[in-house]
């Protein structure tokens, strides 16, 4: 079938909006009509060519929501008409990782997904007769896409696509890191480094679990007001601390010894070190969420760790997608989480390059493309 897509033909070039060909779902696969998709920094990172695993030509996008239109052979748990959110971290419930209960990083289709292919080693998309790669198993920058059943969370049908698409990445990554990965307790102190589309969700996750103090750190002063709306109790702009400002010392002074939990939501290795070192001696936990560039390394003195700080990391918020994403959609529908105020722009697919330009300029939090 003909579908409308934003194609990443070459690294560093704008996306090309055009009709592409999509084959129907094969064994274990599902055809999904995508109704809305968010633009995430990771899409921009891959498009820039800096992602060493980035493949071209491809259809990017990993933060979507839509409706099942057709199921392939062997699909048991989904039917036409079901509302779904694609999962770049699938949940097969059978692989050693899923069975371990110790991680959300399902390995069942990881090798083919990382190579831009469906589990059978081929692609469903083509353009001018040439294969086009899938992206993170999702490719939500197309109004129809094919996704393995194990990479789809079935959600309630009354949830609005233009809001809950954000649960496909940013919301779950932020709130999940607090609840599932770090397991922040009530009355904890928390610092969030970077108040963007993920950091603000860490802030609201920390508020939900009853954190007593939530300190936001960002070089953009406009993020303070937004942060306070989501639960920040304090804001620190490192640029206000002067040329050789000591951010770690400042945070330790503010909290009388450091934080119970810190979260790095930028992908900057210097910030990761500061986040670790501002965690409290003896028990502080620092969670890396941001994705750093290829080849980057983190460092600290071992003293920081032998004195009881723990350095941990989280992907997709530690969430098991098919189990946890429908619950998070319920939380949104029950009014327990705020997504609406984080969606600062809504655009048509034709304007997707303008959306990435706004992201580049740091304008707004989340841009959502709504398909007509
Ligand atoms: C997406 N991310 C951040 C914002 N938007 C994000 C963060 C982390 C990962 C992926 C996306 C991630 C962490 C660890 C892994 N990934 C590897 C997991 C594994 O090896 O099992 C990751 C994932 C998917 C893909 C690449 C990297 C992919 O499909 N190409 C989960
Ligand atoms: Zn993302």
Mean pLDDT: 98
Instruction: Please count the beta strands (DSSP E, at least 2 residues each).
Output: 17
List the helices and strands in order.
EEEHEEHHEEEEHHEHEHEHEHEHEHEHE
- Spatial gap, N to C terminus: 17 Å
Listed once per kind, the bound small molecules are: ligand 022, zinc ion
Radius of gyration: 20 Å
- Secondary structure class reads alpha/beta
Task: Pick out the low-confidence regions.
Answer: none
Percentage of residues assigned to helices: 25-40%
Overall 3D form: globular
The share of residues in extended strands comes to 15-25%
Main sheet? 7 strands, mixed
Number of discrete helical segments: 12
Task: Put the structure in a nutshell.
The chain has helices at 41-48, 96-100, 110-114, 161-164, 170-182, 199-208, 223-229, 247-255, 269-277, 303-306, 321-333, 352-360; strands at residues 2-7, 16-22, 29-38, 64-71, 83-86, 125-127, 130-132, 144-148, 152-155, 189-193, 213-217, 234-236, 261-264, 285-288, 310-313, 343-347, 366-370.
